[in-house]
Input
Amino acid sequence: MALSIKDQLKDTNIIALSRSNDELLIREAYSIGVDQGILFKDESYTKETLIEKIKEFEPSILITGKDNLEIQEDISKKLNLPLINNVENINIKDNKLEVKCETNNELLNFPISVNIINKDIKIRYSSIGEIFKSYDKDLLVI
Output
């Protein structure tokens, strides 16, 4: 879903986060269009560390799934982003974020934070060329 938003907005910075020691996850994210990968090798990192790193990228949209709502609430508060929960779908319309929830649809300004509950996500596959290019990108390790 985040990558479809990136396709519609030219200046969108998509960030992939991983707490594993497996660099491959970030490389795969790069190969399908993610701009920046952050690999947390230090198991002692805190929410504050994560928030500071995300703040550096000045995200237009912060998107998480339902399993990450608690940390997203903390990040949204620290970054002064309005948070919309239980979002079923998002789209760009008139250079604003169209948010579709169970009960209503809204057209909202950026920056914003949304928590997605939709499980019907289109999977994007990478090409062989994009996989090779993904190894040329820098990886932020903290």
The longest helix spans residues 47-56. The longest strand covers residues 83-93. The chain has one domain: 2-141. The chain has five helices and eight strands.
